[in-house]
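Notebook entry, structure prediction.
Reason for the run: the old model in the group folder had no record of what sequence produced it. Starting over properly, with the input documented here first.
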Amino acid sequence: MDEELLDRYADLIVSFGANVQPDQVVAVEGLPEAAPLIRRIARGAYERGARYVDVVYFDPLVKRIRIEAAADDSLSWIPPWLGRRMLDLGELGAARIVLTPLVPPGLLNGVDPVRAARDRLPSVPEVFKVVDDRSVAWTVSPFPTEAWAQVVFPELEPGAAVEALWRDLEHVCRLDEPDPAAAWRQRIDEIWQVASRLDELDLHAVRFVGPGTDLTVGLLPSSRFAKEGGGATTRTGVQHVPNLPTEEVFTTPDPERTEGVVRSTKPLDVSGSVVSGLRIRFEHGRAVEIDADANADALRQRCATDEGAARLGEVALVDGESRIGRLGRTFFNTLLDENAASHVALGDAYAHPISDPADLPRINESEIHVDFMIGSNEVTVSGVTRDGGEVPLLVDGAWQI
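New structure, fully documented this time:
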């Protein structure tokens, strides 16, 4: 493992991603394999004056054991102290750093996908509250594990696969730049400029057309493309980068106005179950048919979680300049794959892209948020204006505005 690379990565996460402040509580979550990076993150946080660094390691093999052996009616139970921890972090104005994947893709192969979908841990619904409250400065970044690397590079030996994945992540996280933070500031500025141009169009809907896809996603009157697609600010004024890497602009749709059919352009990892060949049909905003070549039941079960789980809570656009997309690789990791291609998310919606408080009661609410990728150079994205016209937005992966 490259010690110098780990040092640079930890510094980027602490000082730029989470932007740890003096006297701040810092929560760090990851797999046991991520300990070498987590320890560097802890040191960096304390050197910036953190009051306390709270490290939580998640063991995905214990999650698999639970799914295999626990009583069926207990799988959806979430320990209440996990939610209280998240709310406490919000009250403290903490920073939260998550290293993904917490459940490696394919870990649940061979497990009943219906049972697997009932166990949503390590996700807890209270996360959505602290995100919407802007109470926590959070950032999510990838950490290569052997299990994950072997899914991405099945042709390589385990050690070589991990090394290859590290090289990819060094590039997409801009750690190969002399000043990674400055490189990210430049890219985030480009994202903000695109968001501003989209907002000037005052779109009524966004339409995706491509192989197996003709989907129209309606927007609320005050839906705005988040100029925080690359950066956010807490309610106390701490700037942070929620996703590192990040390449998207996104907004909150009208949950009742999605119509048509869509085919995913990349496999989707649903907490360890890989859903491939996903196809969904929407009517009046609801996913009424969900099919896939593999593990469709894993997503169907998630969409049965509550009333809002089968409706959209996010629509996001990614152009062909994404470093992740230009690699042409499927990472089987939502953080990376969603920043390689345009995508939508089933479930809970973000409040901050809504500019008029009168629209907030209309946004989608759910205990899940599942992103899946629907964009590629073969998928044309257009904006539907309020007079019914269409404006090209993305063609062959290039912005048209």
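Summary: The mean pLDDT is 95.
The old model has been moved to the deprecated folder.
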